[in-house]
Description:
This protein is α/β, with parallel strands linked by helices.
Amino acid sequence: xxxxxxxxxxxxxxxxxxxxxxxxxxxxxxxxxxxxxxxxxxxxxxxxxxxxxxxxxxxxxxxxxxxxxxxxxxxxxxxxxxxxxxxxxxxxxxxxxxxxxxxxxxxxxxxxxxxxxxxxxxxxxxxxxxxxxxxxxxxxxxxxxxxxxxxxxxxxxxxxxxxxxxxxxxxxxxxxxxxxxxxxxxxxxxxxxxxxxxxxxxxxxxxxxxxxxxxxxxxxxxxxxxxxxxxxxxxxxxxxxxxxxxxxxxxxxxxxxxxxxxxxxxxxxxxxxxxxxxxxxxxxxxxxxxxxxxxxxxxxxxxxxxxxxxxxxxxxxxxxxxxxxxxxxxxxxxxxxxxx
Length: 340
Ligand code: 13P
């Protein structure tokens, strides 16, 4: 294993002022997003939409890498160039989602286990040939009455660690994503307790599986109130609780932490990231790996129309720039009103 190459890629993914675009929606998730703008989820429409995001000129100033889906990594842009090549030429690192989704964990009602380990070594080798230099695996932990339990946390952490070990063996940087969902009405204190426990178990498993921490990126949720909580914590409280939890449970050998947005509004996700970076004195880079928070406004502007394509790119670049600023603590809400 060439550790230095893995470390170089991991560092480039979280380079100062940059973060990741998660454009790896599975076919069922992208269909949900397209349903929202009343667009049919055909292969052509998915290709055009991804083309809009992946060819947006200048994105590399704020976007270090893009997480692709299996279909997209094999597709060509509208001008006929394979998408991984489009990205690499722009200086953006292509990545790939490799998990096969969260499925019900038999015997544990309400809990899930992420599948996709069988044949993963061979799939990673193929993705490397297609240009991927990092991968993503998402474990899903829900908070509700009596859950999560210790067994579901441990099982998901083991799967994440086995995935990460296979990635590093295949010269691919693993993004380790244990997502504690913000669905439900739980308090920020409950989210902090669950997130801390999950991270502790995940890093224990990463250690047992001999993961080279310097060659990975963590993709966690922020510590935040449940969406349906009546008394939601302030942005300053979210920033403080998230940094506190990460400091307690994430070794400083990890080069960077790139958050998911998890259903926060675009502006909330940007503000939270900026406030965290303003706290300062952090041992790792803190940046974004947003899906919805980078795409929502772009998706709406596009809405499947030829005329919306250019405006969609503008909206995407605006969010990329603002999140790039947030990754060094320089975002303010006033910047939202400046021209895209
Ligand atoms: P969201 O930012 O929309 O949560 O998506 C990020 C992601 O990759 C979830 O796995």
